[in-house]
């Protein structure tokens, strides 16, 4: 799957080489399917994250939304034109300092002029998703793999999804995620938003998908070959289906414990003990109505995880904040956990 998407992105680059569009970097495989802990084969979605950078003559400025108390950090991506007069060689006209008539006659419109990607002066998630959707459809027939795999595009809103099917095998579902990197860190602002919550199309929530995959890869490098940490995550995540505790909550719990319990203690012979630790930790968090976000404000992360400046000092987000605010939801969560435990 990853190799096919990489080939698609290379075709995208050729198609979009003329004009001014966001510049795509090679996709990064993220999520449970690539990390190795998907629990239901029929529900597997292969997620790949495509980093975007500004085209020549443009800059992306990330603006943090500080209004209200939120469960996630949201940004807007302000697109600004920048002077290219001093660039060598002089391959393009400067959007800021060349006459408008000359620009219209001799150069493709800027991101701000075309409004294909922007709403006003801000990068638009839905418009960018539509661009990816159109690129996939146009590029698929060029790929050699299209002779073997059939493509089916799925409805899109804030991301681009499609299925690939080969002969009588079950189709593989692929989701192209995209976003902008915060500095040189492993933290991005991306297209995905919380389910069931309206998110304006110019709002880009902070995403930790790349950092999570890098953290689990770092653990895998240190782990013994019979380490069962991913199997523990898979089993616990599967057992909590229908209880109101999401797989992301379980992943957060396990990642916290991986920084607390030595990786040598996650081998096969400690399997049952680690399952008990996971469920105890989750129960304690449910009782306290508090589960801190894994990256925000966490000072125990390995140095290999690159964070934005000041990130470890950021106030942690409580992923169980809704349980603090809703006593009925808290009581139901504890009830569901007891039923599961029994």
TrEMBL record:
<dbReference type="InterPro" id="IPR026250">
    <property type="entry name" value="ITPRIP-like"/>
</dbReference>
<protein>
    <submittedName>
        <fullName>Inositol 1,4,5-trisphosphate receptor-interacting protein-like 1</fullName>
    </submittedName>
</protein>
<keyword id="KW-0812">Transmembrane</keyword>
<keyword id="KW-0472">Membrane</keyword>
<comment type="similarity">
    <text>Belongs to the ITPRIP family.</text>
</comment>
<feature type="domain" description="Mab-21-like HhH/H2TH-like">
    <location>
        <begin position="244"/>
        <end position="302"/>
    </location>
</feature>
<keyword id="KW-1133">Transmembrane helix</keyword>
<dbReference type="InterPro" id="IPR046906">
    <property type="entry name" value="Mab-21_HhH/H2TH-like"/>
</dbReference>
<keyword id="KW-0732">Signal</keyword>
<keyword id="KW-0675">Receptor</keyword>
<dbReference type="InterPro" id="IPR024810">
    <property type="entry name" value="MAB21L/cGLR"/>
</dbReference>
<dbReference type="GO" id="GO:0016020">
    <property type="term" value="C:membrane"/>
</dbReference>
<dbReference type="Pfam" id="PF20266">
    <property type="entry name" value="Mab-21_C"/>
</dbReference>
């Amino acid at each position: 799957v990853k190799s096919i998407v990489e080939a698609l992105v290379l075709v995208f680059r050729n198609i979009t080489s003329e004009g001014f569009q966001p510049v795509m970097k090679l996709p990064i495989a993220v999520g449970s399917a690539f990390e190795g802990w998907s629990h239901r084969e029929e529900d597997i979605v292969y997620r790949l994250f495509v980093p975007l950078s500004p085209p020549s003559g443009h800059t992306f400025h990330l603006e943090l939304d500080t209004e209200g108390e939120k469960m996630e950090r949201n940004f807007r991506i302000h697109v600004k034109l920048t002077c290219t007069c001093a660039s060598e060689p002089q391959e393009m006209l400067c959007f800021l300092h060349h006459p408008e008539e000359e620009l219209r006659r001799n150069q493709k419109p800027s991101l701000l002029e075309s409004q294909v990607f922007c709403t006003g002066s801000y990068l638009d998630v839905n418009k960018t998703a539509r661009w990816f959707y159109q690129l996939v459809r146009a590029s698929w027939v060029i790929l050699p793999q299209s002779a073997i795999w059939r493509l089916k595009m799925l409805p899109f809103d804030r991301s681009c999804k499609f299925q690939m099917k080969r002969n009588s095998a079950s189709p593989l579902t692929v989701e192209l995620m995209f976003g902008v990197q915060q500095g040189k860190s492993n933290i991005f602002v991306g297209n995905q938003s919380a389910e069931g919550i309206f998110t304006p199309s110019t709002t880009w929530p902070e995403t930790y998908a790349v950092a999570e995959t890098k953290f689990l890869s770092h653990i895998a490098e240190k782990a013994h070959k019979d380490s069962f940490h991913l199997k523990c995550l898979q089993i616990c995540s599967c057992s909590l289906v229908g209880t109101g505790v999401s797989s992301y909550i379980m992943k957060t719990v396990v990642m916290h414990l991986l920084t607390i319990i030595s990786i040598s203690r996650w081998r096969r012979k400690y399997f049952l003990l680690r399952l008990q630790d996971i469920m105890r930790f989750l129960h304690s968090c449910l009782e306290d109505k508090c589960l801190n976000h894994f990256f925000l404000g966490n000072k125990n992360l390995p140095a290999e995880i690159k964070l934005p400046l000041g990130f470890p000092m950021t106030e942690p987000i409580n992923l169980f904040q809704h349980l603090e605010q809703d006593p009925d939801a808290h009581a139901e969560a504890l009830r569901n956990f007891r039923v599961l435990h029994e």
